Structure formats: structure tokens, C-alpha cells
């Protein structure tokens, strides 16, 4: 699989081809790990950041928004680096030195803009993945817009139990999110100025 | 504010526009009068918006599976002598298959077919049924795994990966026609669509339905993915 070019890899990522993704993953994780370890992080930080960067890349590819003017590896590295700079800023640690990358100013700006809009989603997804397997499956159906009757059928539960379980899973997810300091920071940002109800209405 | 099922369901009905006009007005009145409720509504709304991208969640799950596989591989680093043994076995098998091909004793199916490997582990205690299935499958206990996989796929029709396992188990137990139906049920857009096409083509070859095999291989070449090269080679073999 080593002879795949960036277009092949992007196609593989878009289609969720496990073998292509695994190949790209194995080649690029060590580069991100090395960078993060040099800049106050550890292997777990590197894996989390790399996953976030790949999710962002996947979303951009799927929406046809990814226009590469550098290699895919460089792009994913640049996204990871910016995510890590944000994380360090939030942990009140020193910003890492900017490594020179063969990447245009407009791509760098687009990466920063994308990351700024993804803060909440990445945070919610992080805690969603900490829920038990059945909670994740049930909530996936729920957020996917399936009716409770369909969810009950898919999960093999009664409808009443599905409702109760959905409540418990969602409550647990909200509790996990709320204790993260980053959530408090994002919320504070949202509350300035105070959001009027008309903006909250569906 | 105490969180309870009733509160969550009211908020969800509000967000999904399922309240009657009267209920809606009443709910908005309550929100205006209660800052905690307003914050709760805001949080749910944000959660629903951000989590509606369930494809990203599935993608993240895949990444975690890859990460877990890598960690396991690192733990079980293969000693050098085992690599040598694997190389010798592969070399022996290749020479054997080549000799068999020369004498016409091995079909195209046997030459190209390789059982679909188990991709990643199923985590969590609630998935013990799936774990048991994967255990039988990796132990090549296909007779036992076919009914379990059939049941699992009927209950989880969106799980294309397990359908691939079922199709393979059916092929291994001489049920190529059922395998064809299973692979055909994996639709375009599904994660395992390309694998399904590959095994569908092989299933047709197994049943000597060569026209259907050629047409499936053509689809696979046009798909332009990871099986393209093998599909082209197999097409050439069929056209000889």
C-alpha cells in the first residue's frame, strides 16, 4: 500500500477504507508523537491530537473543502501542530516553537479558522467516546435522528427502557463535558455578550 | 437544576419542533423565567448540533480501533525466527500454488481468495455476543459462526463489516449462493462496499458464473480503490 498517492489516500479516508487509513496512520503518528513529545506532551496527547486532526481532515474531505497545496502528511501535521498549540495555551503552558512547514499562509489560516469552529465538537466527541459501548450506540442512533421506536428495535430494548437509557447516557455525557475546564472556557466565550433566548430557539 | 427524564424529553421535543404551539409557548415562557433552564436548553442544543455529524463519530471509532491494533502489535512484537518461518511458509505456499496452477488443479478462486481478516476488536462488555462471533471466526470455526453471524446481521443490518465476515463464513462452508446475497446486501456508500464487490466477484468465480464475475470486477476497477490492481489481474485471467 506504500505506493498510494495523496489522492488515493484522501479517497480512502473519505470512504472509510480501514486499510488505507491504517497505513497513513502508521506512517504519520510517529512524526506527530515526536513533535508533541518535544513540546511538553506525551504519547497519549499525541494520539488524541492526531485523531482530532484526522477527524478534521475527514470532515473537510467529505465536504469537498480540502484544497491541498502541500502534501497530505504536511497538512495533517499542520493541523496537529495548531491543535497542540491551542491545547498548550489552555493548559497555560509555553507555546511551542513553530516548525517551518512547506505550507502556504492561506492554508495555515484556513486550518486555524477550522479549528476555532471545531472546539466544541472535538470536546463533545472526546467524552462521547468515553461512554460505554451500548450508550454510544444508542446515542448515535438518537443524534442520527432515529425515532425512539426505531432505536428500541435496533437495540433490542423496549421503548420505555430505551427512553430511560437515553436519558441516563445523555446525562452522563453532559456531566463529563461540564467538568472539563475547556468547556467552561468555551461557555464563557459564548456568554459574552449574553445570548438572548431568540437565538437559542430552534 | 435537577436533571430528569421529563426535563430532557421536554427539551428534546422543543428542539425537534414536536411540541404543540401551546406547549411551545409555555416552554418558552418557562425558559425566559428560569436562567438554569435556559442554560440547560443551550447545552442540549449545542450538543445536538455538534453530535449530529455521526459519520465523524464512526470515523473516530475506526481510528481508535487502528490505535488499539497498533498497541497490541507493539506488545506482541514477533521474534525474528517467526518472521523467517512466515517467509518460508509463504514462499512454500506460493511455489505450491504456482505448480498447481501449472497443472490446472487449483481454480482461480483458490488462487485469489483469502479469508477477510478480523479488523479490530469489539470493546465493551455489552458486545460479548460480537466478541464470541469474532473468536469463532478467527478460530476458523465457520460451521458454528454462520448461524451466529446470520442472527447478528439480521439484528444489525447496518453493520457491513459483520456482513463481510458472514459472506466469508458462508464461502468457507460451501454456501456460495448465500454468500452472494450477503455481499449484494452491502450498499454503495457503506464502509465495506469495495470489499463486498471483491468477495462478490470471487463468489461468482466459485460458482463459475464468469459473466457476473467480469461485470463485478469492472465495477471494482471503476471504483478505483485498494482492490483495483487485483481486479484487473483477475479480469485478465478470466479473459484468457
Keywords:
heterodimer, A: 202 residues, mainly alpha, 10 helices, 73% helix, 0% strand, B: 240 residues, Serine Threonine Protein Phosphatase 5, Tetratricopeptide repeat, 2 domains, 13 helices, elongated
β content of chain B, as a range?
Answer: under 5%
Helix content of chain A: over 70%
Q: Strand portion of chain A, in percent?
A: under 5%
Give the full name of the CATH homologous superfamily of the largest domain in chain B: Tetratricopeptide repeat domain
Round the mean pLDDT of chain A to the nearest integer and report it: 85
Instruction: Report the strand count of chain B.
Output: 0
Low-confidence stretches of chain A: none
CATH classification, class level of the largest domain in chain B: Mainly Alpha
Helix segment tally of chain A: 10
- Seen as an oligomer or otherwise, the chain set is heterodimer
Helix proportion range of chain B: over 70%
Give the chain pair forming the largest contact, with residue counts. A-B, 54 and 56 residues
> In this structure, how is the largest beta sheet of chain B organized?
none
Q: How many strand units of chain A?
A: 0
Structural class of chain A: mainly alpha
> Helical segment tally of chain B?
13
Order of helices and strands of chain B: HHHHHHHHHHHHH
Morphology call of chain B: elongated
Q: Helices and strands of chain A, in N-to-C order?
A: HHHHHHHHHH
- What is the C-alpha radius of gyration of chain B, as a whole number of Å? 25 Å
How is this structure best described in words?
The complex is a heterodimer of chains A (about 200) and B (about 240). With about 200 residues, chain A is mainly α. Helix content of chain A is about 75%, strand content about 0%. Chain A contains ten helices and no strands. In chain A, helix 2 crosses helix 4 (about 70-90). The longest helix of chain A is centred in the middle third of the chain and has 24 residues, at about 105-130. With about 240 residues, chain B is mainly alpha-helical. Chain B folds into two domains: about 5-105, no CATH class; about 125-240, Tetratricopeptide repeat domain (Serine Threonine Protein Phosphatase 5, Tetratricopeptide repeat, Alpha Horseshoe). The model of chain B has no long low-confidence stretch (mean pLDDT about 85). At the A-B interface, helix 1, helix 2, helix 3, helix 5 and helix 6 of A face helix 1, helix 2, helix 3 and helix 4 of B.
Amino acid at each position: 500500500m506504500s505506493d498510494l498517492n495523496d489522492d488515493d489516500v484522501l479517497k480512502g479516508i473519505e470512504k472509510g477504507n480501514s486499510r488505507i487509513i491504517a497505513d497513513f496512520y502508521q506512517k504519520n503518528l510517529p512524526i506527530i508523537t515526536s513533535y508533541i513529545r518535544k513540546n511538553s506532551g506525551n504519547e497519549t496527547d499525541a494520539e488524541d491530537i492526531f485523531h482530532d486532526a484526522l477527524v478534521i481532515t475527514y470532515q473537510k474531505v467529505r465536504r469537498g473543502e480540502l484544497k491541498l497545496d502541500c502534501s497530505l502528511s504536511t497538512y495533517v501535521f499542520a493541523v496537529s501542530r495548531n491543535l497542540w498549540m491551542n491545547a498548550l495555551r489552555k493548559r497555560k503552558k509555553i507555546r511551542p516553537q513553530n516548525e517551518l512547514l512547506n505550507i502556504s499562509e492561506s492554508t495555515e489560516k484556513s486550518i486555524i479558522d477550522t479549528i476555532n469552529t471545531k472546539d466544541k465538537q472535538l470536546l463533545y466527541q472526546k467524552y462521547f467516546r468515553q461512554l460505554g459501548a451500548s450508550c454510544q450506540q444508542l446515542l448515535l442512533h438518537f443524534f442520527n435522528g432515529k425515532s425512539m421506536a426505531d432505536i428500541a428495535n435496533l437495540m433490542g430494548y423496549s421503548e420505555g427502557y430505551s427512553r430511560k437509557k437515553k436519558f441516563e447516557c445523555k446525562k452522563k455525557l453532559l456531566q463529563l463535558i461540564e467538568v472539563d475546564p475547556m468547556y467552561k472556557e468555551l461557555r464563557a466565550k459564548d456568554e459574552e455578550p449574553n445570548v438572548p433566548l431568540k437565538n437559542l430557539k430552534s | 437544576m435537577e436533571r430528569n427524564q421529563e426535563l430532557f424529553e421536554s427539551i428534546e421535543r422543543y428542539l425537534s419542533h414536536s411540541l404543540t404551539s401551546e406547549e411551545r409557548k409555555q416552554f418558552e415562557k418557562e425558559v425566559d423565567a428560569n436562567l438554569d433552564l435556559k442554560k440547560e436548553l443551550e447545552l442540549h442544543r449545542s450538543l445536538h448540533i455538534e453530535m449530529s455529524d455521526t459519520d465523524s463519530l464512526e470515523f473516530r471509532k475506526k481510528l481508535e480501533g487502528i490505535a488499539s491494533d497498533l498497541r497490541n502489535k507493539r506488545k506482541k512484537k514477533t521474534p525474528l525466527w517467526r518472521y523467517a518461518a512466515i517467509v518460508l511458509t509463504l514462499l512454500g505456499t506460493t511455489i505450491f500454488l504456482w505448480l498447481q496452477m501449472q497443472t490446472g488443479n487449483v481454480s482461480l478462486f483458490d488462487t485469489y481468495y483469502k479469508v477477510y481478516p478480523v479488523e479490530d476488536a469489539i470493546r465493551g462488555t455489552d458486545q460479548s455476543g460480537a466478541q464470541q462471533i469474532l473468536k469463532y471466526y478467527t478460530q476458523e470455526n465457520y460451521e458454528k459462526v454462520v448461524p451466529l453471524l446470520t442472527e447478528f446481521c439480521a439484528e444489525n443490518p447496518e453493520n457491513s463489516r459483520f456482513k463481510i465476515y458472514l459472506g466469508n463464513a458462508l464461502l468457507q462452508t460451501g454456501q456460495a449462493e448465500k454468500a452472494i446475497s450477503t455481499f449484494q446486501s452491502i450498499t454503495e456508500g457503506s464502509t465495506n462496499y469495495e470489499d463486498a464487490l471483491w468477495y462478490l466477484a470471487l463468489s461468482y468465480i466459485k460458482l463459475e458464473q464468469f459473466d457476473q464475475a467480469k461485470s463485478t470486477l469492472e465495477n471494482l476497477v471503476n471504483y478505483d480503490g485498494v482492490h483495483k490492481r487485483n481486479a484487473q489481474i483477475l479480469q485478465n485471467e478470466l479473459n484468457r
